[in-house]
Specification:
This protein has 290 residues and is of the alpha/beta class. It has a single domain, classed as Rossmann fold (3-Layer(aba) Sandwich). It is built from 9 helices and 9 strands. The chain has a 7-stranded parallel sheet, with helices on both faces. α2 links the parallel β3 and β4. α2 packs across α9, α4 packs parallel to α5 and α5 packs parallel to α6. The structure holds nicotinamide-adenine-dinucleotide. The site of nicotinamide-adenine-dinucleotide has 30 residues, from α2, β4, α5 and α7. Keywords: NADP. One of its GO terms (biological process) is fatty acid biosynthetic process. GO terms for molecular function: oxidoreductase activity, acting on the CH-OH group of donors, NAD or NADP as acceptor; quinone binding.
Length: 290
């Protein structure tokens, strides 16, 4: 049996001899709309990393739909206003829970109804339960997997169905974590969900690649958001001490800002990333190397 890049070649996937035909540019680098009117949907974007991504993709030229749960409606309205003031374009608010299938379907339908397309899906929404494994309950495990993993799966599924129907490729982008590359004390459930997002991202990349849909995830280290501060408190009690510890450990001597992650997502969303798929890219100022 021949194995190439870890994939066995069976009868349906034989080595083909004969002249090699180079892919035409539209196939190997789809003319994906960037800075010229594509449509991006960012979940969990009332604050933190999701908000920074929505603002960045809006300034890159995308039409933007933003999402969060209903208790975050006021914050979503502020983000919508910021996008509209900075770009002069209307942003769409989609309130809903990414872990509820009907919500995800309905939100994607409303994005397409408003902007006639969906080109970039950023499955950013997530939660971060912390604590010693032996203090965690099955309910906490189920909630974290429901939001982080089922939520990402539903976003990939319904966005890709729309992108396949459109026939012009697309970008699916998920949120993993440093904790999705290396287990961490007091973050066992969270780390397990973020490892799962890597597996999902790799598998989705293999399935959707033939439609010119790329699938990647960002993998931040500590980024200064509400989630990171709450996690630092839950883990160490003293937020400042934990943040200082990360500052001293990171190669670049600081913890990240949401805009650092948005810079990476801007590239992943662009036409320039067409040959990059199935990857989970660390963005952590040099905390862990893989
Ligand atoms: N901040 C970090 O240090 C860090 C590090 C690694 C990975 N991440 C990941 O990046 C993503 C964003 O993190 P953040 O720091 O901005 O967190 P955050 O808590 O500041 O923001 C997350 C947002 O997601 C929303 N959300 C939660 N559950 C939802 C649901 N079911 N449906 C819709 N929205 C929901 C929240 O209401 C919140 O507004 C998360 O997936 C997180 O796990 C963050």
């Amino acid at each position: 049996m021949i194995v190439l890049y870890g994939r066995p070649l069976d009868n349906k996937n034989q080595l083909v001899s004969g002249p090699y035909k180079r892919a035409e540019a539209p196939n190997n680098c789809p003319e994906f709309p960037h800075m010229s009117g594509g449509v991006a949907f960012v979940t969990g974007s009332s604050q933190g990393i999701g908000k920074a991504i929505a603002l960045r993709l809006a300034s890159d030229g995308f039409e933007i739909a933003i999402n969060d749960i209903d208790s975050k409606l006021l914050a979503l309205e502020t983000v919508k206003k910021e996008i509209e003031e900075s770009t002069g374009k209307q942003a769409l608010i989609c309130v809903g829970d990414v872990s509820v299938e009907e919500n995800v379907k309905a939100m994607i339908e409303s994005v397409v109804k408003t902007f006639s397309s969906l080109d970039v899906m950023v499955a950013n929404a997530g939660i971060c339960p912390c604590g010693p494994l032996n203090d965690m309950s099955v309910e906490e495990w189920e909630r974290a997997f429901t939001v982080n993993v089922i939520g990402t799966f539903l976003c990939y599924k319904y966005a890709s169905l729309q992108m396949i129907a459109q026939g012009k490729g697309g970008r699916l982008i998920g949120a993993s974590s440093n904790a999705g590359k290396q287990g961490q004390r007091m973050m066992g459930i969270y780390a397990s969900t973020k490892f799962a997002i890597r597996g999902l991202t790799q598998s989705a990349a293999l399935e959707y690649g033939k439609h010119q849909i790329t699938v990647n995830a960002y993998c931040p280290g500590p980024i200064d958001t509400e989630m990171a501060r709450k996690a630092a408190q839950d883990i160490g009690g003293d937020i400042e001490a934990v943040l200082n510890m990360y500052t001293q450990t990171a190669a670049v001597g600081r913890i990240g800002e949401p805009a650092d992650v948005a810079n990476l997502v801007s590239f992943l969303a662009s036409k320039h990333s067409g040959y990059l798929t199935g990857q989970t890219i660390s963005i952590d100022g040099g905390l862990i190397f893989d």
